[in-house]
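Q: What would this complex look like in 3D?
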Amino acid sequence: MPRMMMAAVVEAFGQPLVLRECDTPSAGPGQILVKTEACGVCHTDLHAARGDWPVKPVPPFIPGHEGIGVVVAVGAGVTIVALGDRVGVPWMYSACGHCEYCLSAWETVCPDIAFTGYTRNGGFAEYILADPNYVARIPDGLSAIDAAPIICAGVTTYKGLKETGARPGEWVAISGIGGLGHLAVQYARAMGLRVCAVDVDDGKLAHARALGAEALVDARGDDPVGALKAVTGGGAHGVLITAPSLAAFDQGVAMTRRHGTCVLVGLPPGDFPLPLFDVVAACITVRGSFVGTRKDMAEALAFAADGKVRAEIERQPLSAINAVFDRLDHGNVAARVVLDLGSPS
Ligand code: NAD
Ligand code: ZN
Ligand code: ZN
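A: Here is my prediction, written as structure tokens for the whole assembly.
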């Protein structure tokens, strides 16, 4: 292993990432080292680099939680992952494995969870240290570039759609058709759901249509909630809000059908008011959803390996990260950027 590796480092919140050499980590007992081939750029990485959320990472740190690569070193005691395996290092870096949440397959809310690219260094680097118990297994036939967006954007929206409880033939509204949302439209179609896409950008809405959305609502319009209710006959059975904008949250709750479920996934900083009477009297469920479990991950990847879901990808080199962040911030990324760190394809 080379002693040094190139990485994009958050040195201070709100500042451009610094491209510099860092020590290549080595795999201690129970750890593995992954040589990165590709890493997607999620809007969460932007929140991380700005310190947007109440629980903050501590600079300097390396973001990136859609890293895919090959295992090049295994620490003492590692038996479930072997040299040469292809794995993904997702947002859920590790959990405790024995609390009530881990035992009930809710490891995503384990109080001892660690986050890749946040509380552990992530994939904007040539090598990533990982916990073999929590890496994603990348199916044969799915390239590193294609797999990258699935291990965050894919699993998060697939799980979020399941959490809406919407059944085949019912309507889901997907608010925000970016990196997460363009995959959400495809998962929803593959799950037999009818999709109404909501965004503030003509290109994103056209993209949703091309991916199978039956109806489109421009959130900048005069009455987006009324438009959605008209097309769905009273509101969507499930609403999935991926937009990183608080305005989308008020709207998303109002778009929920009576007795429906609104799933919050986007994480813009701040709070939004819930219209108490409407939520109570219409028996609406509002729930958060955070990435997915390892089982959700395997299912989400299987959809991609089967060709039912395909991320639309723009490849960029690691050195372009600051320009990519700037475009993501301004809504100027068509779907997902994946950093190509030497993928074989
Ligand atoms: P993105 O920038 O790729 O996409 C955001 C989309 O939202 C864009 O298409 C944009 O046009 C649209 N949008 C902006 N304002 C809108 C509005 N008012 N109404 C409707 N659409 C609007 O971002 P992304 O990578 O898809 O991430 C989206 C959010 O999801 C971020 O806040 C991110 O942190 C969060 N996230 C949450 C989880 C989780 O587990 N809950 C996982 C991954 C990402
Ligand atoms: Zn993410
Ligand atoms: Zn736990």
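A: To summarize the key features: The chain has eleven helices and 17 strands. Residues 154-288 form a domain with the Rossmann fold fold (CATH 3.40.50.720).
Q: Very helpful, thank you.
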